[in-house]
Specification:
The protein is mainly beta. The chain contains two helices and twelve strands, in the order H-E-E-E-E-E-E-E-E-E-E-E-H-E. Bound molecules: 2-acetamido-2-deoxy-beta-D-glucopyranose (NAG) (4 copies). Keywords: Electron transport, Membrane, Signal, Transmembrane, Transmembrane helix, Transport.
C-alpha cells in the first residue's frame, strides 16, 4: 500500500512539475535589477505576459511584454485608444533582424493589412528595446503620459515569419483573433 502511495505521489509531483514548466507565468521571469515591474498579468492567449510599473507622478507606464516565440517570428503589443481589437492599435513590434540582433519599434495598425513599418504613435513612447532569451521575445518601453486615464484596451499578437525585416501576416486561428482585452495600469 505504502509503496503504491509513494509511486502515486512521485507521479503526481512529476505531472505538476511538467505542467508548471510547460506553461510559463508572470513569476517565471526574473528581470535584471535595473528593471522594476511591480505588476504583471498572464495574458489568456499566445503564451504572453505583460509586466508593468505605473509611475503616477509622470502618468507613464514602464512595460515589459513577453511571449514565447521561435527565433524567426515576431511579437507585438499595443494600445487601441479609439476602439477595440487590431485596427487602430498603436503598437510596438519586435523581431530578430536578418543580422541576428533584436529590433523593436512603434508601428500604427491602420488596417487589416498594415505596413508594419516604423511609425509615430498617437501617444508618446520611449526607451524601446527588445530581447530574445529562453524562447521568449520581450519588448521593453515607457508609454505615456496616459492622458486618457490608466484603463486602456490593449491587444497583442505574434507571427511566425519576418521577411526583409518586415513582420509577415499572422495566423487567423482563434487565439490570434481573441488576443485583446482591457487593462488598468493603476491596479496592483
Ligand atoms: C474599449 O473596449 C470596450 C469593450 O470592451 C468598449 O466598450 C470601449 O468603448 C473601448 N474603449 C474605447 C476608447 O474605444
Ligand atoms: C542589424 O540590422 C539592423 C536593421 O537593419 C541595424 O539597425 C543594426 O544596426 C544591425 N546591427 C548590426 C550589429 O549589424
Ligand atoms: C530612458 O532613456 C533615457 C535616455 O536614454 C534615460 O536617460 C532614462 O533613464 C531611461 N528611462 C528609464 C526609466 O529607463
Ligand atoms: C488619448 O485619446 C486620443 C484621442 O482618441 C488618442 O489619440 C490618444 O492616442 C489617446 N492616448 C492614449 C495614451 O491612449
Amino acid at each position: 500500500m505504502a509503496s503504491v502511495f509513494i509511486v502515486n505521489l512521485i507521479f503526481n509531483i512529476l505531472v505538476s512539475v511538467s505542467v508548471i514548466s510547460s506553461a510559463l507565468t508572470c513569476s517565471d521571469k526574473i528581470f535584471s535589477p535595473d528593471r522594476l515591474f511591480s505588476s504583471c498579468t498572464d495574458l489568456p492567449y499566445l503564451e504572453a505576459h505583460l509586466h508593468w510599473n505605473y509611475i503616477p507622478s509622470l502618468r507613464k507606464v514602464s512595460i515589459a511584454y513577453r511571449a514565447t516565440q521561435i527565433p524567426e517570428g515576431w511579437i507585438a503589443w499595443g494600445i487601441n485608444p479609439t476602439g477595440i481589437g487590431m485596427v487602430g492599435s498603436q503598437a510596438l513590434v519586435a523581431f530578430r533582424n536578418a543580422n541576428g540582433t533584436m529590433t523593436a519599434y512603434p508601428t500604427s495598425i491602420t488596417s487589416y493589412n498594415p505596413a508594419m513599418l516604423p511609425a509615430l504613435l498617437s501617444f508618446q513612447v520611449s526607451n524601446i528595446s527588445a530581447e530574445y532569451n529562453n524562447n521568449e521575445m520581450i519588448i521593453y518601453a515607457i508609454v505615456g503620459p496616459l492622458e486618457n486615464g490608466t484603463i486602456v484596451n490593449h491587444t497583442w499578437q505574434s507571427g511566425s515569419s519576418v521577411s526583409s525585416n518586415i513582420p509577415q501576416i499572422h495566423s487567423t486561428s482563434s487565439p490570434h483573433l481573441q488576443s485583446m482585452g482591457k487593462i488598468d495600469f493603476q491596479s496592483a
